[in-house]
Amino acid sequence: MRGKRVVAALAGLPGLAAPGAAHAIAWYFQTPASDMARDIGRLHQVIMWLIIVIFVGVFGFMFYACYAHRKSKRHKAEQFHENTTVEIIWTVIPALILIAIVWPVTKVVIAQKDTSAADITVKVTGYQWKWGYDYIKGEGKGIHFVSTLATPRDQIEGRAPKGEHYRLEVDPDMVVPIGKKIRVITTAADVVHSWWVPAFGAKQDAIPGLRRDLWFRAERTGTFRSQCVELCGKEHGFMPIVVRVVSAEDYSRWVGEQKARLAKADTRSIPAQELVSRGEKVYAANCVTCHQPTGKGAPPAFPPLAGSKVTTGPQEGQITRNSWGNKASDVQPAEVKARRK
Ligand SMILES: [Cu+2]
Questions:
Q1: Whole-angstrom Cα distance, residue 74 to residue 65?
Q2: Ligand 1 centre and the CA of 301: distance in Å?
Q3: Global pTM?
Q4: Which residues, other chains included, contact 275 with Cβ-Cβ below 8 Å and sequence gap of 6+?
């Protein structure tokens, strides 16, 4: 068991990475799923080896000099200052090394910033603590949803064993087609978050009031998981990112389903009981952490909803209306939709 782990660890050393071995090594890069991720991985390896060579060279020489010329050998120190040749060498060599690093790095950074001619554009908004997705250009334009953590509260609070994708699962996933250039515009509604999918080599801060963008082109289908990577508050570790890459046909089918869902988006009247059970689901996914399962909140930061004048007052104020003993008139989804306009 132990030997196996060591082998797996060695396989992950830069330059030695065997294909397929990456799954065994949690601390090394994920297997790339785009050219960009591969380029980034390659840069890492080249620069890492360069650093190792310099490190061993400099420290090797230093330790050798200390040892070979030690006092107990009665070595007499040389006294030389202002040696122009030495000074030129130790300026020129590092400068050349820097240029050798900067050149390929700049090429990759410029390629990362080229978000032009995208096939599909998705605006991603960071919220405390979930991600909003709006498809704003290309196939799927008009689709929007909020993607929240799907890991059950029981697993988080230790009442149930943790699942395979603990804290790396959401509902719903972001879906994109394979081989298409996807532009993601990042922004945030409250504090700074950061959207990152390591397998695509795509990462960008999501900053309130600003728009940044990134792009990726996924080269294989599958599910790619990640997390918010800018410390954004107490539930920072509970707003994962999941991107599902599918074939062109599957993507078109998904777009059709989403469009149908949005068109239906509740123009019909829904019985009160169903409203409450649907509301419960939304509450469990979005509100429960602060306002608590009892609806009593955590005052003063998070006021109680149970018995609150806001919850039972005019509809504009709140739509959480008939829970925890509250009694108020229903709000139909159609009414919410109408008010949004
Ligand atoms: Cu965040």
A1: 14
A2: 19
A3: 0.72
A4: 322, 330, 331, 332
